Known about the structure:
It comes from Sphingomonas lycopersici. The chain is α+β, with helices and mostly antiparallel strands. The protein has one domain: 2-Layer Sandwich (Gyrase A, domain 2), CATH 3.30.1360. It is built from 4 helices and 11 strands; from the N terminus they run βββαβββαββαβββα. The chain has a 6-stranded antiparallel β-sheet. It is globular and about 50 Å long.
Amino acid sequence: MDDPLVNLIHLDRQAPIAKGFVQAGATLMVEAATGVGKVQFLSGTSDDRFAQVFGLEAPGAGASRASGDVTISWLAPDEWLVTGEEVAVQIVLARAQELEDAALVIDLSHARASFLLTGEAARDRLAAHTPLDISDAALPVGHVARAPLADTTMFVARVADAEGESVFRIIVDQTMAKYAVRMLAGPNAV
């Protein structure tokens, strides 16, 4: 049997281009080993096709679901972002690649920077740079969105709270990583 990972185009990951920060009230941690991939079904997503690739039922608009070491997040109709342990993401992408002409599969791990923003001031820092409503009611745990982050764009996911505080996964284009960190760190950042 052929190795399904052989058919995926994979670029080696470079060292993280931006560092996070630990400041009063907020921490931004780089997720250097997080894999990021995108799967877009070209002929409409059937429940069977989605289950064949991801092993679970499709999450609704703006939602995500965990499956093993990966999380599948809704991006748009028939379009899904896969995040998690890099090898696990590659395995899921290889399964999707087996659909051949029915899916567009892209490993974005080398082109994206992923961060976790936590702490009592995390929500305020994020809210200062996006028009997205990130309140508990609008973006509860397990929900996702694409939105502006100052002068760039981001994918934001509300992940499980830690120590009673909100946690946000923020993914930006790697070329905008330093900028995103600077915006979230605030004007007094070094």
